[in-house]
Amino acid sequence: MPASAAISSSVATLGSRPLLPFILETQPAPAYGGDLLHSILDRLDRLQEMSAHSQVELTSLRELNVEILEALTQYLPLRAEKREEAVRAPETSVPPKLTLRLLGPFEARIGDRVVTAWPGRKARLLLAYLAMERGRLVPRDVLIELFWPGAREGRGANNLSIAVHQIRSSIAAILPLTTQAIIVRQGLYGVDSECVSVDLWDLQSTLDAARRALELKDKPAAQAHLRKAINLYKGDLLASDPYEEWTAEPRRILDTASHQALTWLAAEASTRGNWQETLEFASQMLQRDASDEAAHRLAMDAHLKMGNRSQALQQYQLCVETLRRELGVTPSPETRRLAERLAD
Fold first, then answer.
1. Most Cβ neighbours (<10 Å): which of 121, 161, 208, 264?
2. What total number of domains does the chain contain?
3. Structural domain range at position 325
4. Residue 220 above 80 pLDDT?
């Protein structure tokens, strides 16, 4: 398959469907304020009534407690914010967003300050997972099964509510009034895309734009978008958590799209006769996969066209040694034919 067709296919797959299957359609954020307070009070009344009956099931009490905790974690920070707003002059500045980096090691940042006070790994991973769903809300049961598999009835829901509270507390420790970040609505969870920015979202949008440019055969636009995509791809998805099973498939998709973007850019530079650029892209390909034989050929050809025959031969020897060491194979006939040209 030509490089342009391959990357168009991969990018289309990445850009046209969610990275993870456990999603619902985007729901509007809940209306906060008086209605939320009434809801909390109603739940407290129900809890009091249920507690008065000795035959009530403990599970029901636990579930209602979870609902109250979720509602309070939304209401109390908002109530504090309203008090603060009442005693201060109106502000015209826009509060900084919570910025999440999912490509490479996980990082959460508000302005120039990094959020480091994560009370638990699960809270950090939960935030990352919800950010990967970009504007979609995930059912509570899905999150419980993913992060607390096998938890007793009621315990998983409590764990989830605690993790959400920990996320909000970690963010509030840096800037209390910036954002709640997490939306909770009727058993559905997500990140508020109005106050959160994510590098993965930028990459997806850029790959979508590249796909459209390739479909329109607009090479300059495709080149610009793919260059931007390569710059955005700072490393494997959630590189700090490589063994989380739910990251494997999206990580593979992103790695494939990134590799094909580099392949297209290198081949396009070669077509234009820009050998220095070809060599740079081929080198990036080899940094990610030292046994990428196509990248070795691109580098060999670029060295040869630039008049660096000895460096081209060194590249071939490196290719031979790497393939033998890592894969136990010899170079393909295509690579050997190119090597024969170097000897002429």
1. 264
2. 2
3. 273-344
4. yes
